[in-house]
Design brief:
By secondary structure, the protein is mainly α. The chain has one domain (2-181). The protein has seven helices and three strands, in the order αααβββαααα. The chain has helices at 2-25, 28-43, 50-63, 95-100, 104-119, 122-141, 147-181, and strands at 72-76, 83-85, 90-94. Strands 1-3-2 form a three-stranded mixed beta sheet, sandwiched between helices. Strand 2 and strand 3 form a beta hairpin. It is elongated, with a radius of gyration of 18 Å.
Length: 184
């Protein structure tokens, strides 16, 4: 019971703080490696359209966005109404979310939102929070990988949902600031 209370407290209040600080120490080169392998794994099931990726990249460049990251857009022919960003600057945009946009400004807003996730290092922060929680639970229980991993995965999913909402709001605000600066 005590371990459960300590773990819940850590994941709810301390882990976000630790994850934020830990992410700040990770060099961009490492972030690029993490993002590259994550992106390859996630998108291996989807078919990328090279010609639409090129058009999307040209559109991105014409918008005038700027980032400290090397932003790389990828267009996927898929019926998901979704887009996502991984650490290091790779952004996946799916056909059906583009179909939902009614004008170029909406597509620019979508890209600004995803770029804000990259610039704010949201995915990296979630990863470092989960890792720090796992390490603390392993130290508390002496269980490296067994039951601790299962318990922590479930607890972290709850915490990531809360952080995800917070990160989505932050990406909306930062994306809008970017669009406003570009006079959209």
């Amino acid at each position: 019971m005590v371990i459960g209370l300590v773990l819940f407290s850590y994941v709810k209040w301390i882990s976000p703080f630790v994850g934020e600080r830990a992410a700040a120490f990770i060099p961009v080169a490492v972030e690029n490696q993490i993002g590259g392998s994550s992106f390859a794994q996630i998108t291996s099931l989807f078919e990328m359209d090279s010609s639409k990726t090129e058009i999307l990249t040209e559109f991105y460049q014409a918008c005038g966005f700027s980032s400290d990251y090397n932003i790389r857009l990828h267009f996927f022919d898929n019926d998901m109404v979704n887009a996502f960003a991984v650490p290091g600057g790779q952004i996946a945009i799916f056909q059906d979310i583009v179909d939902e946009t009614e004008c170029w400004d909406e597509l620019a807003a979508l890209i600004a939102h995803e770029q804000a996730h990259v610039d704010q290092r949201h995915s990296l922060k979630i990863m470092t929070q989960a890792l720090s929680s796992y390490l603390v639970l392993s130290l508390l229980t002496g269980d490296i990988g067994g039951v601790s991993g299962i318990v922590l995965e479930n607890v972290n999913q709850f915490n990531q949902l809360a952080n995800s909402r917070e990160f989505e709001k932050e990406a909306d605000v930062e994306g809008l600031k970017s669009l406003k600066a570009l006079k959209y």
